[in-house]
Amino acid sequence: MIDFCFAIMSFGERYNKQSERFILDRNNHCKDIPIIVITDNTDYFKNFDNVYPINVGEYNEKYLNYGNKYYNFDSSCKRFLIPSALKLGYKNIVIIDNDNHFLKTWNTLLFRNLFKTNHISAPIVYNYKNHLKLGDMVLYYSNHFNFSIHQNEIRNLPEGCINLLSFDTEERGYNFYNTWNECVMLRDKNKMFKNNNLEEVFFSGKKNGLSFEVVRTHMFFLAKHDTWYR
Predict the structure, then answer these.
(1) 157 has a pLDDT exceeding 80
(2) Could you say which of 46, 83, 154, 182 has the lowest number of CB atoms within 10 Å?
(3) Within a domain: 194
């Protein structure tokens, strides 16, 4: 029985075509694994099997006008994939960029074994000590939420191209989402630096009892970054 799902975001015609490619690729390798899509156009995805499109406007209407943007696109809308997956009963969630391709070496059982309960796992992580600009927002959130994190603890910030999230309970999953959502609203309200969700995901994980680790996904996926936005 499949107990995890893929979760992608998709906005605008070109991005939707890229998502379609991911869906068709999924069909050739593991069509029994569901895909949840946060999008501005649910009609585009309604005829695909085992695909669950969610209109981003159900969470925040400001993202409805992002379809033709790239350089000022706010990818933090991927946080809405968390409650969308939880509502469908999935506590193991793969948030993945839709420009990833499945490799011939795909194996569902081996991939499932990458999940660890109450972990966020990613193929690439960053360290505050080596990437000084990363981590500053973590300390800001730490102070704002009165949740102590020393800068020496800020390591293994998960890069967002592929994140495997596993929660032991729905409550922990929703708490993680709520913290992430509060961080984004706070960041936007104060017009603060945006850095691709790394710090928000890291802080939300720490605050809600999640651990972080590197996992090898190179035998399952290969990213091909199409210049669809030019």
Answers:
(1) no
(2) 46
(3) no
Asked whether residue 149 is domain-assigned, the answer is no
How far is 70 from 229, CA to CA, in rounded Å? 6
Measure the CA–CA gap between 3 and 94, rounded to whole angstroms.
Answer: 11
**Domain of 8?**
1-114+215-230
Give the pLDDT score at 191.
Answer: 80
More confident residue, 158 or 89: 89
Per the domain annotation, does 176 fall within a domain?
no
Question: What is the DSSP track for the chain?
Answer: ---EEEEEEE-SHHHHHHHHHHHHHHHHHHTTS-EEEEES-GGGGTTSTTEEEEEGGGT-GGGGG-TT-STT--GGGGGGHHHHHHHTT-SEEEEE-TTEEE-TT--HHHHHTT--TTEEEES-EE-TTTSTTTTHHHHHHHHHTT----GGG---EEPTTEEEEE-SSHHHHHHHHHHHHHHHHHHHHTTPPP-TTHHHHHHHHHHTT-EEEE---TTTEEE----TT-
- Total count of domains within the chain: 1
* 174, part of any domain: no
Phi and psi (nearest 5°) for 219? -90, -5
Residue 98 belongs to a domain with what CATH number? 3.40.1380
Which pLDDT tens digit goes with each residue over 66-115?
A: 655 555 677 889 999 999 999 999 999 999 999 999 999 999 999 999 99
Q: pTM for the full model?
A: 0.92
